[in-house]
Amino acid sequence: MGFSVVVLSDRDRQVMNCFVHDRSAAVGLCAVCQKALCRECVARDTPRLVCRSCVKQRTVIGFEYRSAISIGNWPLVHVCLGVDPITMRPRVARGIIAIGNIAVGGVAIAGLAFGLATVGGLSLGLLFALGGAAIGAGLSIGGVAVGSVAIGGAAIGFVHAVGGAAFGPSIIDGDRCDQSAVDFLRQWLGDRLPPTCR
Question: What is the distance, to the nearest Å, from the Cα of residue 195 to the centroid of all Cα atoms in its chain?
Fold first, then answer.
């Protein structure tokens, strides 16, 4: 058995040329628009090749809306879903009202939310937090809730805790109803208290 090696001459090789400069050999494809790029057209090469037009447009793989009205440097509403094509990291929504995969704002709604009032899978809110895991200084409601007033499956309250497993100075859980927690809840719920507290 024999092997044969075929060597192509330079004129027989297929070369991909740049989309913009059709006489220049391409060094790769833009990670965003998938167009061939020569060295002159590459704007960023780490961690991925990105062309100048995509960097200039700040193209988002996903969706982005930013309201024209802003307070300081923050837009009134910023919705941002997806990843930054240059860094391939998740984009962060930042605004008075921020909505996205990751959000930071006065009111933040996201998988990972940080702000004054937050709703999310992991919610870190200064005044109010609602989420699978809700952590805050004020009212926290979630599967796992930590806050001054915590309501959840597992609730850790600095003042009051209400939940299946409640920990804090004043608690309501399946076994115990502290009078201060009952008085606090009665302000908001009236007589609609858990059966163990009636």
Answer: 39
CB 173, CB 182: distance < 8 Å:
no
Task: Write the secondary structure of the chain as one string of H (helix), E (strand) and C (coil).
Answer: CCCCCCCCCCCCCCCCECCCCCCCECCEECCCCCCEECHHHEEECCCCCEEHHHHHHCCCEEEEEECCCEECCEECEEEEEEECCCCCCECEEEEEEEEEEEEEEEEEEEEEEEEEEEEEEEEEEEEEEEEEEEEECCEEEEEEEEEEEEEEEEEEEEEEEEEEEEECCEEECCCCECHHHHHHHHHHHCCCCCHHHC
Sheet of strand 77-83: strand arrangement: 61-66, 77-83, 92-136, 139-167, 170-172
pTM of the model: 0.70
Q: Tell me whether strands 42-44 and 36-37 are parallel, antiparallel or unpaired.
A: unpaired
d(CA 110, CA 101): 5
Say if residue 125's pLDDT is above 50: yes
Tens-digit pLDDT profile for residues 21-48: 888 888 888 877 888 888 888 876 666 7
